[in-house]
Amino acid sequence: MLKLFMSLLFLIVIGYYGYRFIQVLLKMRKAKQDVILPIKDEEIAAIRTYQQRTVKLPTYTEQKAGIIMYSLTLLFVIAMFFIGIVSTEFQLSFYPLIFIPLLHTQNFLDLFAVMDDGILCGTRFVAWERIKSFEFVRIDINHKYYGFSKEVNDTYELRIKAKFHSISCIVTTDEVKEKLNNVLNEHVR
Question: Within a 13 Å sphere around the CA of 151, how many CA atoms are in the beta-carbon half?
Fold first, then answer.
């Protein structure tokens, strides 16, 4: 009974990760006409999802390596699950080990784009109506990102709180910060 429950839980979690991935891929397909920010090269260079890397355009060619890695990770986790089910030695302690590769999958795509209907960030899409609040936090000496890169020091981290999770990015110029602030104020209630 517990094995059946864990198998159903696994399928729900994999279904959720697959749904999110397909949603991001579909949003990337129509991203050329729907992207509000970043559009110019200066805006792209001023937004980072990680301290050392700038974002890339939300296109399949720019995000090819991340898409391949995410797909392979999902396929690996599904294959391990089915190998475990077929194996007669499958233990319940195996389930948490299957989920470990999924913990940092949001890091595969260097993606942050403000679109007409929401925000793409990594492997997540957050619709405007799901966003509860946002804030710009100064990256000073007490911030966790301070010291990783000279370009990041004394800039801002944008934290966006949605209903069940939050997303963030680093903004390195005041011009892009103001543009993001204006767009978010316009769309977030």
Answer: 13
Chain-centroid distance, C-alpha 103: 12
pLDDT, tens digit, 9 for 90 and up, residues 55-80: 888 888 889 999 999 999 999 999 98
pTM above 0.85, yes or no: no
Closest among 40, 16, 35 to 117, alpha carbons compared: 35
Closest CA to 175 of 38, 58, 56: 38
Residue 175 has what pLDDT?
A: 93
Q: Is the pLDDT of residue 3 over 80?
A: no
pLDDT mean over 100-121? 86
At 146, give phi and psi (nearest 5°): -65, 135
What are the tokens at 105?
């999958």
> Before 58, cis peptide (omega within 30)?
no
- 3-state secondary structure string, the chain? CHHHHHHHHHHHHHHHHHHHHHHHHHHHHCHHHHEEECCCHHHHHHEECCCCCECCCCCCCCCHHHHHHHHHHHHHHHHHHHHHHHCCCCCCCHHHHHHHHHCCHHHCCCCEEEECCEEEECCEEEEHHHEEEEEEEECCCCCCCCCCCCCCCCCEEEEEEECCCEEEEEECCHHHHHHHHHHHHHHCC
In this model, does residue 141 exceed pLDDT 90?
Answer: no
List 161's β-bridge partners, or say none: 133, 166
